[in-house]
Specification:
Length: 212
Amino acid sequence: MTPPVSDSSASTLHWSDSRVEVHRLVVGPVDNNVFVVRCRETGEGVLLDAANEHERLLELCQALDVRTVLETHGHWDHIQAVPAVREAGYKVGVTAEDAAMLPSYDYLLTDESVIEIGRLRIHTHHTPGHTPGSMSFSVADTPLLFTGDTLFPGGPGATSFEGGDFPTILRSIEDRMFRVFDADTIVLPGHGADTTIGDEIPSFDEWAARGW
């Protein structure tokens, strides 16, 4: 088993078990969470959202043996480092619905597919509403669900931007998250603190009533 890595780019070991490490780095003017999910057996990793501060992200990619980059969606604050990471040789995946929002990319992510990183299996979940192509990622046999800007502590992400739709994001949260994942599933959003599915479910009707 490859030991945990303490890298020099000010990331933190955010969560781990015997198989998986999750490293988090907060970057940019709106404090984006960038996560690296790393297989402890092989040392290989995947970076979620090349958001900003590309120098720090490239240090993280090198330290944690990142093999590819997955974008949760195409909003500007989640993609600023995409050109730099691609120039450094890392391939970037995004959904077809959000692909035009990126300056460049390498491959398309599809719903209910599996991405293998080392011994890990990362499942894709199309969760539109914040953007038409918003994608969430779960890691098989762990309680981890990376939700981008679809679900935060206290409610759904904003839907006031072009392409956003509040009824759609509610359906994504209810049908693709609350009805699928256990209450103890850890929600790791694109900004701010973690929450759990169980902590958020009781507020769903309140969110629907308030309309945001």
